[in-house]
Amino acid sequence: MFYLTFTRVKRIPLLVAIKALGMVKDEDIMKAVGLQSHSEVLINLYDFVDLKTREDALDYMARKIGITQSREVRLERMQEIVDKYLLPHVGMGKDFRMKKAYNLCKMLRKFILVANGELPLDDKDHYMNKRLKLPGDLLADLLRVNLKILIGDMLYNFQRIVKRGKFPSIKVIIREKLLTQKIYSALATGNWVGGRKGVSQRIERLNFLQTLSHLQRVVSPLSATQENFEARSLHSTHLGRLCPSETPEGTNIGLRKNLAMLAQGTSEVAEDPVFEHMKKLGFEPVKE
Description:
- The structure is a single chain.
- By secondary structure, the protein is mainly alpha-helical.
- The protein folds into 2 domains: 113 residues, RNA polymerase Rpb2, domain 2 (Dna-directed Rna Polymerase Ii 140kd Polypeptide, Chain: B, domain 3, Alpha-Beta Complex), CATH 3.90.1110; 124 residues, no CATH class.
- The strands form 2 sheets. It has a two-stranded antiparallel ribbon with strand order 1-2. It has a two-stranded antiparallel sheet with strand order 3-4.
- The relative contact order is 0.07.
C-alpha cells in the first residue's frame, strides 16, 4: 500500500488522494503512472474500487483524519485542505487539481522504479537537488508570517469592539507598531520564522576579503552536532558554484560554505519560452 502524508493529513492512501483531485478513472491513473508492470498499482486500485467519484474520495479522507460534521461540511473542509496544503507550489485553486494528480502519479512511478531497483536513489548532496534561499526569499518568509499575525490581531480587535456595540475605525483596530517591531526584532537578533537562528548577522568589515566572504556565505540547515559525513564532504557538483577550500574548522566544517567568486544565483525565468522549447523536443502537454 502506498501512503501520502501532508500537513494534518497523516498516512492517507495515495490512490485515494489522486481520486480526490479528480482523476477517478482507474484507466487514467494507470496511464498517468505509465509502468510496464502494473501489479503494484493494480493491487492498490482494487482496494479502493468502491470510490467512484471525487466526492467519495474526499469523504474517505475527511473521515480518516477525524472530521465528524455533516457530509457537506466534511467535503468542503477537506477540499480546502487539499487545495491549500497538498503541493501548494503547483497551485492552490481548483484549476490545478489535475496537475497535482499527474504530479503524484509521476512520484508514484519513480518510487516504484526505485523500490524495484530499476532506478538509483537520488543523491541528496547533488547541487541539482538543492536550492539556495537568498535574502529576498528569507525576507518574504518573515513578512508573510508576521503579516498573518497582524491580520489575526486586527480581526480579534475588530470582533472585540463590535461585541460592545461600537463600529471601530481602522486606527483603533490596528496596533501600529506590531508588524514593524517583529521585523526589526528578527533583523536585530537573527531569530527567524521557522525556528532558524543566525539568519541576519552583523557584516564583518575587518578587511575587504572578509566582507566579500561574509556576503557569499551559504549556511546549511543541518545540525552541527550530528555527523552528516556526506553532507559535509566535497561534492563534484560544487565545482564552480562553491569554494572547495573555504569552510570553518570544528563542528561547522562543511556545513558553512561560501559561493565561488564568480557564482551567481539565477532569478525567475519566464515559463512560456521553456514550454515552447519542450514542445519542439517532442513533449506533449497534459490534457486535463
